[in-house]
Every structure is written in structure tokens, then in C-alpha cells.
Design brief:
The structure holds 2 protein chains of 2 kinds. Chain A is built from 5 helices and 9 strands, in the order αβαβββαββαββαβ. In chain A, β5 (about 135) and β6 form a beta hairpin. Chain A has helices at about 25-35, 75-85, 125, 155-160, 200-205, and strands at about 65, 90, 100, 110-115, 135, 140-145, 170, 175, 210. Chain A is globular and about 65 Å long. Chain B has a 6-stranded mixed beta sheet with strand order 2-1-6-3-4-5, with helices on both faces. Classes of the chains: A little secondary structure, B alpha+beta. Chains A and B meet through α2, β2, β3, β4 and α5 of A and β10, β15, α6, β16 and α15 of B.
């Protein structure tokens, strides 16, 4: 592993909202690992931090994907679009967003959308021995893999605290890869990346994925899940629930239509 | 040779020998994929086409297309199944059935363009495909399960407990990893019992329902096929493909969310119809749900429910019992979803249930079927509309008890056994309108449906004109509103888009029009388009053909531009729409030749007697109570005409058949394809085979 341990003790449970908190690398990795990457002490968000002797700022990503599993239809268009625009082939195993469906489960269970969280404290970046998995400061601080530097050790994949790991192995090209918010999409005519478009967002037919510049709350998964139904002009009209819980609103009164309409004369 | 889309290999499993091998896709690429490829492979491998569907010599093909598994919209998840069927009456014709979901995509990711299954295993088996590793496995612990239990058990066996993590399909770093469950297609217990009502089910609500392919699986001792793949489908021009998908989204609800307008009709088939549109119209209004869609779909027309019942099911899967539920309970209740779910888990063709319930309930009312009646039955007919009744009926078919002992052989053969087939299909109380298949849409009013079914081998189940020429005007008439498009304008659109014939009078459903040369062209167009673009390239019937679209310029939909656009982006080819239509005509003729080798005659090509003898009254043969309005050209003017009450004239239908045969280049005396026609389609060998069998048209 690169670097040496720092020795300043961490201030725990201080509820600080300071932009700087001092901690050791081991404490950072251990503390983060216990409750999930990107989470911080007491759920308080810290945007960046300084280590003694060395400034090791990890600037926050300027873009995040939010999903709504109560909207998702499990069509996998996002996965097909992701793999196609990045690799020129439709391949679920190369998709940097994974959707998993249990077709028999009762709504609202049954579908999970597993997007990369562009963690403020990315364990995958931390774990990479060559700097291949890095923060791309030229492209909105997106966490991404510089393929030419990847030696295939897969430590980034192992380090991702989420299931499934958001970093994945490309067995065609022999390197790891991850969501880059479409920074590098040679097979798409649109400009991707932060400031551009994301294929999964664009091609989702029900708009169950959105792009946000705001850093989501990090304490649990809910920060990355949004209710993308309530502001849709059509969702309730189509007969779907728009509440946060997925419960139906009370039915509107039935429209006043005559029980037997007189058929119009043929036109 | 295509630069993308195809994997290059078709999996071939010989269950008798227990052998796994492959065919080169290149031999069959000329047929497109799906049904065309499946028919051609069947033609080559099933050397005796007169065998019964239950015979081990029957060959079943389960085919993907070059678009399967890709981001091409409303096409990537469909699969086509072909074999000699066991449902057709009086003959189990070589037939087809399609199902949605994700099976064909997963097949492509595993490296296969399709699967061919021959022979019969000595003991019950299931086929386990993991990329290129294919095993025929003992079905102990799987045989006897319902379709849901089967799939859950196979998922456990293939990928473990399903914690959603990456799973490797092999030992090495580069073996390929996936987070996905295997895609499984399976029969239920009715297939094990060789019931002619047996369907093939995939995931929760996808089914190859018609044809009895579940029983064909059963006759081969084959319970299920599971596929998991970690590869990809190469796209020849991915930029063009994704640009095309952006282009077509302008024709869909998702591309028009901020200026949404209801599709016309608002539910179901149109490309412009929104998420859940295939299901929400049939489910309980107060139950929470979300849309559910097949692989890559741009519509996601099914739903997944809070009750977890009938997830992914669409249309008739749920609608078969909805009318009865509504009648008994005023509104649609959970019973409708339970009924759909029970049918899916049992693996029963819901159209057989549809016809059975209409017929049996009528016979019960007539005092012919019931306790102590001529046909003894303890089913609770007085509770029809309840979960209790439909469960009892499904159980009776699964267990071959009560009326199920005879119904398990299909409604048609049950009626024959009871000595009631002729009289009940003459009055129409047994609504089997074409080849012993349940009436779906009425041949008397929507003739292209009836004629296409009659000249084929099953209920066509192709909604291209049903959508626009029946539902659009009929719903408007019922609601007392203006139709979204006038009959005249609709005819103009047809005149532009129905290439190569491009004749607006093709949709003249007047009393003269239905026997005319124009209707010949419509039916021919429909057969050719269906055989290639829908059943071979696998464009979904619930999005294509997109002829009229509320979002399109002047209502013009994205057909016929869309179909070749996506195909060529994926394959790198330059096929035109018309070239595809010509391949469709070739496939149609190949199928026709197979039926003639099976013993087809002109005389057999008739509709059920009630089509000629009784008027079409809403609610009699179907659950719909909507009168039928269709476009008609009368006195030089286009109108939507109410044809409720119409019946067909037998002699005029026969005369129309002669016109159709002539148009297609078939012998007008027998309906058989001629050598001239077959050779013009590069099917000279097929002409030789017909000649050897003394079936060649003159």
C-alpha cells in the first residue's frame, strides 16, 4: 500500500462540520470500512480533509447518480446503454451500473439499482497501488480507472464496500473499470461526463435514474435513492404511486362518464 | 456475413444421445433469425414432417435474433419457439410461439444465436448453459415443481443463494462474471402430464402460450432450459444504434413526458402507450405497482404488483379472468391477479382457459355440465369469478380430474370427445374460431386476423391492424369522442407505409372490401411483415408496426423506417424494409410447404362454422362488450363503420381464398405453393420435396 500511517488521533463523535478533520490513514480506512465508504463519523459529512505532513485532499465528485427502485422497470436499458457507449457491445457484465431483479418479489421489493456512489472517500481509489483508479480532477473529480495504468490486481474491486462491487473486472480487455459518469464514451455521439450527459440517465425509458451535482447524504443508502416519481407530470396519471413509501394515494373520484355512451355515428 | 449482432453458433442438443454440439449460424443467416431461422433449421433436421408433436423425432428450435440482447428498443428480449405443435385441431401443425423477458438476450451473452433440441432423454432432465459449457442434468428435485419453484431452484443450483454479488462462471480470472440470475424457460406440471394446454414460462409472466410446447418439452423429458452468459453482442455501428434509439424515443411517452398525450388507443399495443399499459388496465386500481419491462424495452408495458401476483404478466394472462371477476365483484379485484398467477405457475395456456370457461359456464347454465348432469362435474360453476372457481379448474387440468381429465387434451379435443365439437362451434358457445384455437379477435369483423389465422396454423396474435382498425375507432365510438385520426387519414397513412403494396384501400373493411383484392394485399402484407420483421428479427408486437402515432409528424409513426434502421446499425448491413418483406414472403412459403407436407388441403382452410352462421355480437365469444367499428370505404367515402352483427359468407370467403392463392403464386385449386413460386424464392429443394410427396402446387 502506498504512503505511511499518520499518527494524529481522530476526534470522534465531535459532531464537527468543519471542513477539516485530522485522522490517521488506518483510522480512516478502518472507520470508513466499518460503516461503508463515504460515510463519516456520526453521519456528518466532510467534504475533504487534510493529513499532517502531506496534503491528501480527495475532492468530492461534482456528479452523482440517484435512482428510484420504485420507478425502475428492470428493463436493463441502462446496462445495455452503458456497455454499448463505453465498449461498442451490449454486455451486462461490462455495465458499470448493475440492476438486479427478482421477478417474483412483491412491489416495492424485487429490484435494486446498484450505481457507483462516487464516494467522497473512495476506497477503490485508496486501494489502487498504481494510481490507475484515481480522482480525475480534469473531469469533475469523477472516480475512474486509467486503464493504461491498471495492473489487474483487483484490489479496487475487493475494496469496494458495496455488494456487488461497483468496480468490475473487464475480462475482454483485462482491466478493472467503473462508472465514470460517461466521461469516456467513444461509442456515443453525445458529450458525456460531468457537464455532459450520462447514457443510463438518457436511455432509461421511465426516468428512474437522475444526475445530481449535490453530494448525497452518506450515512446509508437512502441518500442515493430519490423519489423520481412525484415530480413527474405523468406518473400518477399512469396509475402508479408517487409517495415515498410506494403506497397508493387515495383513489380520485371516478370521472363522470355515462355508463352506456351512445356510439358516435360512423365517421 | 454480418459485422455484428450474431454470435455465429446455434446450440444443438440431442437428448436421445445425450450429446451437445453446434450449428454454424452462417448457414442460416439468410433467414434473419428467430422464426425464419427456426423454420429453416427445423426443415433440415426434422426429416419426417408427418410425425406427431409428441414424437421424439419432433425438433424444437428456440431462437434469438441479431437484435436480441442489444439496446435496440422493444425487440431485445423476445424469443421465438418453433416445433410441430400439439394444440392445433384437427392437426397439430408445425407452429410458433413467442415470449418476452430476457431469455434471448442471455442466450446471446452466452454465445448462442439459438438452441435446437432433438430426441428424447431417457429420464427427466434440464439443460444447463453457462457460456460455452452446456450440461444435460438430471431433473430430480426440479421435475414436479411449478414454474416459479423450478426457476428459483435452478437459480439456487447455478448461482447459489442470490446475494446479488459478482459470481464467476469459471475458475480463471477471465472466465466471466455476472450479478444476474440465469434466464430459465420451463414447463409446469401440465407439461409433465403431456397436456396439450401446456405452455413454456420464463421468469414471472413471459410465456410461449400457444401450441402446446410445454407438452413437447414434456414428451422429450425436458423440464427446463437455463442460460447464463457473461459475453456481449458486438454492435457494428454503436453510435448509429444509440442515435437511432434517441430518434425513436420521440415516438414514445418517455420522450414526450413534458407534453404527454394519451396514445390512441391509450393502453396496450401502441409504441406511444406508456409504462404499465399492458397490465394496469386489468389490475385492481387501488393496488400499488411499478412498471416491468422486457430486456431493453422502451415501453415497459407490464407491471409488478404489491401482492406479488401476476408480476410481468400482460393482457390475456390476466384479462382471461378479469371479466368474470368484474361481473362477480363489480370492480377488478385481487382475484384477477391471483388467476393470472395461478395460470403462470401451472404453465397453462391462458387462451385455453379463456375458451374453457366461456364454454363450460354456458354448458352449466344449459344444464349439460354440472353435478348429476350429462357431463358430471363438481366444479363450483355458480361461483365463476371467484378465486375458488379458477383454482378448481386449473387444478382439474393439472391433475387430470373432473372435466380436467378431458380438458387436459385441449378444449377442441375435449369437445370432440364429448360429441359436442360440431354443434358448439356452429353456435359459437365453444369459441374456437381458427384451428381449434380460442377466438382472440373476431374473424367476422376484423377479417385480416381471421384470414391470417385461417391461412396459417394458429391464432395469429399480431396486433398491427387490430390496434388501429378496431380498438381506436371502437373505443372512440363507445366513449362518444372523436377518434384520434379520421378513417380517411388512417387510410392515407396505410397507403404511405404498407410497402411494397402502398395501397390505402387495403384497410377497407366494408362488406365488399373484406372479400376484395385489397384485403388480399393486407393479409399478404401482414403475413410477410410478421414472419420477418416481427417473428424473425423479433420486433415486439406491442410496439411495432408503428403506423399511426400521436407523437409522430401528422400522426405518422416510425415504421417502416425504424425496422431496418436498428437492424443495420447492429449488423452493419444495408437491408431495406422491402428486402425484409421479401424474406418474410420466403419464410411464409417455407412454413406453407411444411404444412402441405403435413397434409394441408384447401378444404381444411376454413373458419369455425359460427363465423358463417352466427352474427358477431359483443360479449358472446369474448369478454369484450365493445361493438366493432372498423374503417370502411363506402360510396367513395372513408368512414368508421359499425360492423357489429356481421357474419361471413362462406362462398365469398372461398372466392377470396382463390384470389389470395393466386396473389401468392400458389395453386388455386389446392392452395399449395408452385414450383415457379418456390424457385423464385430460392426454395427449389422444397419444391422437390413437395413433388416427391405429391403435394406440389401446379
Amino acid at each position: 500500500m502506498k504512503g505511511t500511517d499518520m499518527h494524529e488521533p481522530v476526534k470522534k463523535g465531535g459532531g464537527t462540520t468543519s471542513a477539516t478533520a485530522v485522522m490517521s490513514r488506518r483510522q480512516f480506512v478502518g472507520g470508513v470500512g466499518a460503516i461503508g465508504a463515504g460515510a463519516v463519523f456520526g453521519g456528518v459529512f466532510v467534504g475533504g480533509f487534510m493529513l499532517p505532513d502531506k496534503v491528501l485532499a480527495i475532492p468530492a465528485s461534482k456528479g452523482y447518480l440517484l435512482v428510484d427502485t420504485m420507478k425502475c422497470s428492470g428493463c436493463d436499458s441502462c446496462m445495455l446503454a452503458c456497455s454499448t457507449v463505453h465498449h461498442g457491445q451490449a454486455n451486462l457484465s461490462l455495465s458499470r451500473i448493475q440492476v438486479e431483479t427478482d421477478p417474483f418479489a412483491a412491489f416495492p421489493e424485487g429490484i435494486v439499482q446498484q450505481q457507483c456512489r462516487q464516494c467522497p472517500f473512495p476506497a477503490c481509489v485508496e486501494a489502487c497501488p498504481t494510481g490507475a483508479n484515481h480522482v480525475d480532477t480534469a473531469n469533475g473529480n469523477v472516480r475512474t480507472v486509467e486503464v493504461s495504468k491498471c495492473i489487474g490486481c483487483e484490489r479496487c474491486i475487493a475494496a469496494c464496500p458495496f455488494t456487488p462491487a461497483r468496480v468490475l473486472w473487464n475480462n475482454d480487455e483485462k482491466h478493472s473499470q467503473k462508472c465514470d459518469l460517461c466521461t469516456d464514451t467513444p461509442h456515443w455521439s453525445e458529450d458525456g461526463g460531468i457537464g455532459g450527459k450520462q447514457a443510463c440517465v438518457e436511455f432509461c425509458p421511465v426516468k428512474a435514474i437522475s444526475f445530481s451535482e449535490e453530494i448525497p447524504a452518506q450515512s446509508d443508502a437512502s441518500g442515493y435513492q430519490a423519489n423520481l416519481r412525484k415530480d413527474s407530470p405523468v406518473w400518477a396519471k399512469l396509475g402508479f404511486p408517487v409517495s415515498d413509501s410506494g403506497a397508493m394515494s387515495p383513489a380520485p373520484p371516478a370521472p363522470a362518464v355515462a355508463a352506456t355512451a351512445t356510439p358516435a355515428p360512423g365517421k | 456475413m454480418s459485422r455484428g449482432g450474431y454470435t455465429g453458433k446455434v446450440l444443438r442438443v440431442d437428448l436421445t444421445a445425450g450429446k451437445v454440439s453446434s450449428l454454424d449460424t452462417s448457414t442460416y443467416e439468410q433467414w434473419g433469425g428467430g422464426h425464419g431461422m427456426g423454420s429453416a433449421i427445423f426443415y433440415d433436421l426434422c426429416t419426417d414432417k408427418t410425425v406427431d408433436g409428441f414424437d421424439p423425432k419432433n425438433v424444437i428450435t428456440i431462437m434469438a435474433s441479431p437484435l436480441s440482447g442489444t439496446a435496440a428498443p422493444a425487440v431485445a428480449g423476445r424469443t421465438e419457439v418453433q416445433a410441430i405443435g400439439v394444440q392445433g385441431y384437427p392437426v397439430g401443425w408445425f407452429t410458433r410461439s413467442g415470449f418476452g423477458g430476457r431469455f434471448s438476450g442471455m442466450l446471446k451473452y452466452a454465445g448462442w444465436d439459438g438452441i435446437v433440441v432433438e430426441g428424447k432423454a431417457a429420464n427427466p432432465v434440464w439443460i444447463d448453459v453457462r457460456n460455452g459449457d452446456v450440461q444435460i442434468r438430471d431433473a430430480k428435485g426440479v421435475w414436479g415443481l411449478d414454474t416459479q419453484e423450478t426457476q428459483e431452484e435452478i437459480w439456487r443450483r447455478v448461482r447459489g443463494t442470490g446475494d446479488g454479488d459478482w459470481v464467476s462462471l469459471g475458475e480463471s480470472r477471465d472466465s466471466g462474471r455476472t450479478t444476474q440470475r440465469p434466464a430459465v424457460v420451463t414447463m409446469g406440471r401440465v407439461g409433465e402430464n403431456l397436456s396439450r394446454t401446456a405452455a413454456l414460462i420464463h421468469d414471472a409472466g413471459n410465456g410461449a402460450g400457444q401450441g402446446g410446447f410445454g407438452a413437447v418439452f414434456g414428451s422429450k423429458n425436458l423440464k427446463a432450459i437455463s442460460v447464463i452468459g457473461t459475453g456481449g453482442v458486438v454492435i457494428a455501428d454503436p453510435i448509429a444504434l444509440m442515435d437511432a434509439r434517441t430518434w425513436v424515443s420521440a415516438y414514445t411517452l418517455s420522450g414526450n413526458i413534458d407534453h404527454y398525450k394519451p396514445a390512441s388507443p391509450p393502453k396496450g399495443m401502441p409504441l406511444a402507450a406508456g409504462p404499465g399499459s399492458a397490465t394496469l388496465v386489468y389490475g385492481p386500481k387501488d393496488q400499488a405497482s411499478a412498471p416491468q419491462g422486457c430486456l431493453g424495452c422502451i415501453k415497459s408495458c407490464r407491471a409488478r404488483w404489491q401482492s406479488g401476483k401476476s408480476n410481468g404478466s400482460s393482457c390475456i394472462d390476466i384479462a382471461y379472468y378479469m371479466g368474470w371477476d368484474k361481473k362477480a365483484h363489480v370492480a377488478v379485484t385481487q382475484t384477477t391477479l391471483d388467476a393470472g398467477d395461478m395460470a403462470q405457475r401451472a404453465g397453462i395456456n391462458v387462451y385455453e382457459l379463456n375458451a374453457a370457461i366461456i364454454w363450460l359456464v354456458t354448458l352449466n347454465k344449459m344444464g349439460i355440465v354440472g353435478r348429476g348432469k350429462q357431463i358430471e362435474s363438481a366444479l363450483p360453476y355458480e361461483t365463476v369469478g371467484s378465486t375458488e372457481f379458477v383454482k378448481a379448474l386449473i387444478d382439474s387440468i393439472q391433475d387430470r380430474t373432473d372435466v380436467g381429465a378431458d380438458l387436459a387434451d385441449g378444449v377442441a379435443r375435449c369437445a370432440e370427445k364429448w360429441g359436442r365439437y360440431e354443434q358448439d362451434t356452429k353456435t359459437g358457445i365453444c369459441p374456437l374460431q381458427y384451428w381449434g384455437y380460442s377466438q382472440h379477435y373476431d374473424a367476422r369483423t376484423e377479417v385480416e386476423w381471421g384470414y391470417g389465422s385461417m391461412l396459417g396454423e394458429r391464432d395469429v396474435n399480431e396486433h398491427d391492424f387490430n390496434n388501429l382498425c378496431y380498438w381506436l375507432p371502437s373505443l372512440a365510438a363507445m366513449a362518444g369522442t372523436e377518434p384520434a385520426i379520421s378513417a380517411k387519414e388512417m387510410a392515407a397513412i396505410m397507403g404511405e407505409k404498407l410497402l411494397p403494396y402502398a395501397d390505402p384501400t387495403m384497410i377497407d373493411y366494408s362488406d365488399e372490401g373484406i372479400y376484395s383484392e385489397s384485403m388480399v394485399k393486407l393479409v399478404a402484407w401482414h403475413r410477410h411483415y410478421g414472419r420477418f420483421w416481427k417473428q424473425s428479427i423479433l420486433y415486439c408486437d406491442w410496439a411495432y408496426a408503428d403506423l399511426f402515432n400521436v407523437y409522430g409528424p401528422d400522426g405518422r409513426g416510425c415504421s417502416p423506417e425504424a425496422e431496418p434502421k436498428f437492424l443495420n446499425a447492429v449488423t452493419g448491413g444495408t437491408m431495406t424494409f422491402e428486402q425484409g418483406m421479401e424474406i418474410g414472403r420466403r419464410i411464409w412459403n417455407l412454413d406453407r410447404a411444411i404444412w402441405y407436407l403435413q397434409g394441408r388441403t384447401r378444404e381444411m382452410e376454413v373458419l369455425a362454422a359460427y363465423s358463417y352462421e352466427t352474427p358477431a355480437v359483443p360479449g358472446s365469444q369474448a369478454n369484450s362488450a365493445i361493438p366493432t367499428y372498423v374503417p370502411a370505404l363506402e360510396n367513395g367515402e372513408w368512414i368508421y363503420k359499425n360492423v357489429t352483427g356481421r357474419s361471413l359468407d362462406r362462398a365469398k370467403v372461398e372466392a377470396w381464398k382463390t384470389k389470395f392463392y393466386a396473389f401468392e403464386g400458389w395453386d388455386t385449386a389446392t392452395g399449395a405453393p408452385t414450383r415457379k413460386t418456390l424457385e423464385s424464392l430460392d426454395l427449389g429443394k422444397v419444391a422437390d420435396d413437395l413433388e416427391t410427396a405429391s403435394k406440389l402446387g401446379k
